[in-house]
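Project channel, design review

CF: Before we commit to the Trapa incisa constructs, I'd like one complete example in the thread so the newer folks can see what an input/output pair looks like. Taking Reactive oxygen species modulator 1.
RD: sounds good, go ahead.
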Amino acid sequence: MARDSCLARVGAGVAVGGAIGGAVGAVYGTYEAIRYKVPGLMKIRYIGQTTIGSAAIFGLFLGAGSLIHCGKSY
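CF: and here is what came back for Reactive oxygen species modulator 1:
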């Protein structure tokens, strides 16, 4: 049972991290695309790459933090 609850916590951490990272990545990608005057439809690709990259990295770190925190009992 302890492993299942830990797995659920890590999964929730990855999901929350992905959502927050995706939102921040979308805002940052839009800002950068406008700032650097990315032409035409390349803006959509640039914003998408930034969104997915940010979501993946932040989700990974929040999931790892949840995994580390799982072993601690207070």
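RD: helpful, thanks. The first helix runs from residue 2 to 35.
CF: The chain is about 85% helix and 0% strand.
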